[in-house]
Amino acid sequence: MTHEHIKELKILNAALIIGGLVLMFLSVTFGTAIGDSWLDGVGGMADTSNYERIVDTQTNNFVIIGSILFGAGVLTSLGTYYLSARYIKLADGEKEE
Q1: Domain locations in the chain?
Q2: CB–CB of 69/19 below 8 Å?
Q3: Which segments in the chain show pLDDT lower than 70?
Q4: pTM beyond 0.85, yes or no
Q5: How far apart are CA 55 and CA 61, in angstroms?
Q6: Under a CB-based contact definition with an 8 Å cutoff, are residues 24 and 66 in contact?
């Protein structure tokens, strides 16, 4: 594992964490936009409970996807930290066990 690989992993981790946070915090905006698009697709008239169900479902979908991306970013950050600490020890001349 070279220094360049570790740097690329850190960039990937940051992208996963930021992407997950964006999806979680903007889930209401995205869910409402999809709900409005659905409402336009059915002619602009629908039962209120159906519209609310669509918006809630889509909002929850974005929260779940964002949480998965955020969790994956945090877990890979921990792995990257471990690998970078190990790489530094090996680069300093310590033996690998």
Answers
A1: 3-91
A2: yes
A3: 1, 90-97
A4: no
A5: 10
A6: yes
Tokens of 54: 């669509």
- The residue with tokens 């981790």 is 13
C-alpha torsion 63→67→73→79, nearest 10:
-170
d(CA 49, CA 65) in angstroms, rounded, equals: 24
Q: How far, in whole angstroms, is CA 2 from its chain's centroid? A: 26
**Counting beta carbons within 10 angstroms of the beta carbon of residue 37, is it exposed (0 to 12), middle (13 to 18) or buried (19 or more)?**
exposed
Query: What is the Cα–Cα distance from 16 to 13, expressed in whole angstroms?
Result: 5
Matching residue, tokens 């969790």: 71
State both tokens at 2.
Answer: 């070279």
Can you read off the two tokens belonging to residue 21? Answer: 């946070």
